[in-house]
Here is the input.
Amino acid sequence: MIKKVTINTLKKIKEEGRKFSVLTAYDYSTAKYIDEAGIDVVLIGDSLAMVALGYETTHSVGVDEMKIFTKAVAKGVNRALVVTDMPFLSYHADVSEAIKNCGEMIRLGANAVKIEGYSQYILQVVTRLTETGIPVMAHLGFTPQFLNSLGGYKIQGKTKEAVDEILQQAKDLEKAGAFSVVLEMVPQESAKYISENLSIPTISCGAGKYCDAQVLVSDDVFGKYSEFTPKFARKYGDMKEFIIDCAKKFDEDVKTGKFPAETEVF
Ligand code: KIV
Here is the structure.
């Protein structure tokens, strides 16, 4: 029997000094395959705004779209922890709206939600979600939903003061109930310091090797999304070329009459 990954599994992995893997997925079959591959956490990232829907930033994706992707991914996963990234403006207006929107994702099969940023209000949201039985993954450092306020894709936590601030925010989020925290675009040494001083697991998104886990966007890993690849992403395949190659061969076979063959007709 498959043993489901839970938030306790991730906590234990950190306590034992081991690492876990996190990949994004946006559709049923990709989710199924990365789950079969042994990925521990499958994240329905709001990065789907760019890689699956062709928008320019994550701001354009809404709750209704995230629901569709959550439903599809959750159906494909048996073992991994399924986490839905809550989109821009889905948890900001008030706590009850946050609970309603996050709760919808749990109803559709997610095991937890991810929310970005830090403020006294966000701490309240994390506390209430946790009390409601909705585990929360926090997200600090560079937070894409704050792109306009941060003034672009900038590395965060470069000075001692800035690292201490992120660490304090992470500790407050941990106290409020967050079970893990994504650190995005933080220098490796800063992320090391934060990881060593926090009991919940840190998940690196371009924050180096000392975090307890690593997350990447699956389309970057598969070489599928080619418009922009961050410096910290590693490409393990060339799905773009594979798709173009298969499509070209099919096109040629159709136009030269090689498809369908006798075995492919009724
Ligand atoms: O949207 C996303 O995919 C993310 C991860 C890369 C952390 O937030």
The first strand starts at residue 20 and ends at 24. The beta strands are 20-24, 41-44, 81-85, 112-116, 136-141, 180-184, 202-205, 213-216.
